[in-house]
Amino acid sequence: MRLQAHTLSLAALLLAAVVSSRARAADGEWQSLAPGLWYRPWRLQTVEDAPALAGHAFRVDPRVVHMTMLDARQGGRRMATAATLREESQAYLVVNGGFFDEHEAPLGLVVGDGKQTSPLRKVDQGVFLLSMGKPSIQHTRDPLPAKIDMAVQVGPRLVVDGRAMQLKRQVSRRTSICVPGDGTVIVVVFPTPISLADLAAALVRPQADGGLGCWSALNLDGGPSTQLSVATPGLSLEIEGGSGVPNGLAILPRSGGPSTPPP
Predict the structure, then answer these.
(1) For the chain, how many structural domains are there in total?
(2) Within-domain flag for 255
(3) Residue 171 falls within a domain, yes or no?
(4) pLDDT tens digits, residue range 83-133?
(5) pLDDT for 176 beyond 70
(6) Do the domain assignments include residue 224?
(7) In which domain, by residue range, is 186 found?
(8) pTM score above 0.70
(9) In a domain, 262, yes or no
(10) What does the pLDDT look like over 36-73, one tens digit per residue?
(11) HEC states along the chain?
């Protein structure tokens, strides 16, 4: 979302989510959507006796699928929805990416397919990146690898070295990314508002206890920017945002490479 103060209309906060009847994975179970891509609905009980929050988790093996950042800025266009970016790229999945300013320009490092489309900002944030096919999350002050396949700078970091960070309890829609340390990446979308503190605690919790077992995790842009578009033989899912975004994190088909099933 824009980092400066702004007023959102009620329509910008409306959410539309349509799930294909073919998707019937139970909570806690990973359903294979395509080679190197799995899905599970993720319901979190954050407050006793309150309704569980419904989220979506996608496990990605970047050794099998192609993971990159898509730039919406083309043909005079400055922004696009996740659905438009997915349709144009024929991706399996697209979520919103990093922050942007009041002029709809990206804020922070963005690299897609080895090409930098926005420079690093020297602020207290994190960077999710793929380098030589290996996923990681690091602080912006740490030296970047010489070769970067894809990257997005955003924040805050939610989990560092297997420990949930102390974060604000303000609630909002969330998009986040998790590195469990086994070579895969988990993309999480909560279209219902959740606090950063609750999300971080759930991400680091072991899978056996209903979490995702994240060793490191990073919050992407959220609020009205949170959006998701999925089109696979096993799942069709659309979560609309309040506006377009200047870039999106995409998962596309790619042949070859080993596939590691989720534990």
Answers:
(1) 1
(2) no
(3) yes
(4) 999 999 999 999 999 999 999 999 999 999 999 999 999 999 999 999 999
(5) yes
(6) yes
(7) 11-242
(8) yes
(9) no
(10) 999 999 998 777 667 788 999 999 999 999 999 999 99
(11) CECCCCCCCHHHHCCCEEECCCCCCCCCCCEEEECCEEEEEEEECCCCCCCCEEEEEEEECCCCCEEEEEECCECCECCECHHHHHHHHCCCEEEECCCECCCCCECCCEEECCEEEECCCCCCCEEEEEECCEEEEEECCCCCCCCCCEEEEECCEEEECCEECCCCCCEEEEEEEEECCCCCEEEEEEEEEEEHHHHHHHHHCCHHHCCCCCCEEEECCCHHHCCEEEEECCEEEEECCCCCECEEEEEECCCCCCCCCCC
